Amino acid sequence: MSFEIRAGALADAPQIHAILARNIETGTASFSLEPPSAAEIEARLARMIDQDLPFYVAVSGDAVVGYAWADWFRPRPGYRFTLEDSIYVADGHQGQGVGKCLLTRVIEAAQARGYKQMIAVIGDIENTGSVGVHKACGFQYCGILKDVGFKFDRWLDTIYMQRAL
Residue 31 in 3-state DSSP? Predict the structure, then answer.
């Protein structure tokens, strides 16, 4: 499969919403139990675009097959040089380099904008794909929070990883 990476746009919101909703409904990368509304996704993307935060999509033809962004790690001003990344790849497109290409582009954009640290908050210790992509992009383990999430009738851990920019 071939794909290209481009800057994300507000027009991508419906496809991003579909990818995220599917993941929330079937996976444990997010501990959300219900997908955000399409309007919430559109508002989030508009805010990130307005604030010039790194936001990219992987497209194959007209289809968005993955997306990644870096948003504020915490809202307090002391954290203003630290971002938290988020990556989701559509079903059927995992394991093809989409996530790594997206994360690489987000890291490069964050560096160019002068950010200093990027944090990955990975839901579910069994999310080996996300852990592997982050390791391949230079992230290191910071810690594990045990049994902090509960979804699909089981307790889930959260992994923290960090990369200097």
Answer: coil
Integer Cα distance of 43 and 39 in angstroms: 6
pLDDT value at 1 more than 90:
no
Q: Domain 4-164 belongs to what topology?
A: Aminopeptidase (3.40.630)
Residue 17: which H helix or E strand, with range?
helix 13-26
Closest to 1 measured CA to CA, from 87, 93, 91: 93
Tell me which residue has tokens 């902090």. Answer: 148
Residue located via tokens 């559509």: 90
Which of 162, 113, 108 has its CA nearest to residue 134?
162
Strand partners, 133: none
pTM: 0.95
Virtual CA dihedral for 119, 9, 59, 100, nearest 10 degrees? -10
Average pLDDT, the chain: 96
The ranges assigned to domains in the chain are: 4-164
Contact by Cβ (8 Å): 147, 157:
yes
